[in-house]
Structures are given as structure tokens and as C-alpha cells.
Amino acid sequence: MDKIHLKRKAKLLKAQKLLIKISIMAIIGIILGIFYIAVISKSNKELINTTLSNFFNEISKNNINYTSAFINSILSYTLSGLFIWILGISIIGIPIILIFLFFKSFILGFSISSLIYFYKLKGIIAAIIYIIPIILSLLVFIILSFFSIRYSKKLVKVIFYKQDYTFKNLTKKYFKILIISETCLIICSIIETFLIPTLLKLL
Fold first, then answer.
1. How do residues 78-107 score in pLDDT, each as one tens digit?
2. How many domains does the chain have?
3. Which one of 68, 85, 88, 184 has the largest count of C-beta atoms within 10 Å of its C-beta?
4. What are 12-70's pLDDT values in tens digits?
5. Closest listed residue to residue 87, CA positions, set 145, 136, 139
6. Distance between CA atoms of 99 and 197, rounded to whole angstroms?
7. What is the DSSP string of 137-188?
8. Does 149 reside within a domain?
């Protein structure tokens, strides 16, 4: 009984360490994204400023094509989630998962710093509103990355080391993770398309 308890404790500790490592990498990506605005050229800053201005003008004039925006958002989020999930099956996908997660974190940091840099106090409020679905989706990507890396490692042990894992149950659980993740990402798309523009319009 003690051996089973110790084995479970060791597995839990291992899982916690992996989740912490993934989270730290995501935090580093956010921090680097925040500071990136300081090192880009003046022409790039002007381009970002123009893009943001056009974005807020479209919102204020209510010129948003919600159907098109929702389709683009839902495809972006769900395909990203599916991409991470498939990489977990590919065995060699772990480094790509980490790079992809870092990129998503970097975008979040850069979005925050860009809004604050160009819009000051209003930018802080806009950033808080704007990043709500991005933060939610990033949390989903972090959890999905965690399960994808774990699945990939277990798959290696099953194929190459013949360790005793019930492959069918393992895959069934992993598929459930995909369904839950994609559902959460669809909710993020709904928030991003329909709720965020309404809140930003108040600014």
C-alpha cells in the first residue's frame, strides 16, 4: 500500500514539475513580448499604431463583420489547439509544442505593451479588456501542452520501452482532453468576437 502511495506521489510530483516548467516558459514569453516594443524600429511602431487605430475605429463605427470575425477567431483558436494535440501523438513534437506555446505567450506580452505604449492610461484599460480571451486561450494551451507532452512521453515508453500502459485508455483520455480544450477555445472565440468589441466600444 505504501509503495502504491509513494508511486502515485512520485507521479504527481513529476506532473507538477512539468506544469511548472511549461508555465515558467510561458511567463518568459510574456515578459519578452512586453519588452519587445522597446527594441523595434520607429517604422514598425508606426505600423502597429496604424493597425491599432484602424482596429479601434472599426469597433467605434460598428463596422465589424461579426460572422467573418467569429469564423477567423474560431479557426485560429481551434486549429491551434488541434495542432498542439496532434504534436503530442507525433512523439517528436515536444520541442515544437514548447516553441508554439512560447510564441503564443510572446504575442500576449506584445499585445499588452503595444496598447499601453500607444494609449497610456486608456491603453491599460483596453489591454485588460482585450487580453481576456487571449489569457483564457493561453491557459487552455498551457494545459493542453502539458497533457500533450505527457502523452508523447508515455507513447515513447509504450513503443520503445514496452512499458505497461493501457494504450486504448490512454488515447481515450487524451481524446477527451482535446474535446474539452476545443470547447473552451470556442468559448474564447465567442468572448473575443462578441463581448470584447462591446466592452472596448465603451472606451
1. 999 999 999 999 878 899 999 999 999 999
2. 1
3. 88
4. 888 899 999 999 999 999 999 999 998 998 899 999 999 988 888 888 887 788 889 99
5. 145
6. 30
7. HHHHHHHHHHHHHHHHHHHHHHHHS-----HHHHHHHHHHHHHHHHHHHHHH
8. yes
Residue 107 lies in a domain: yes
Residues near 171 by Cβ (< 8 Å), separated by ≥ 6?
none
Residue 56, in any domain of the structure:
no
Half-sphere exposure of 78 (CA within 13 A, CB side): 14
Q: What is the pLDDT of residues 113-132, one digit of tens each?
A: 999 998 888 888 888 898 99
CB count, 10 Å around CB of 186? Answer: 16
Residue 106 lies in a domain: yes
**Average pLDDT along the chain:** 89
Q: Which residues contact 45 (CB under 8 A, 6 or more apart)?
A: 37, 117
What residue type is 69 in one-letter code?
A: A
Return d(Cα 154, Cα 161) in angstroms, integer.
10
Report the Cα–Cα distance between both ends of the chain, in Å, rounded: 60
Smallest Cα–Cα separation from 90: which of 167, 141, 153, 179? 153
pTM for this entry: 0.90
| Apex 141 CA angle, 136 and 143, nearest 5 | 95
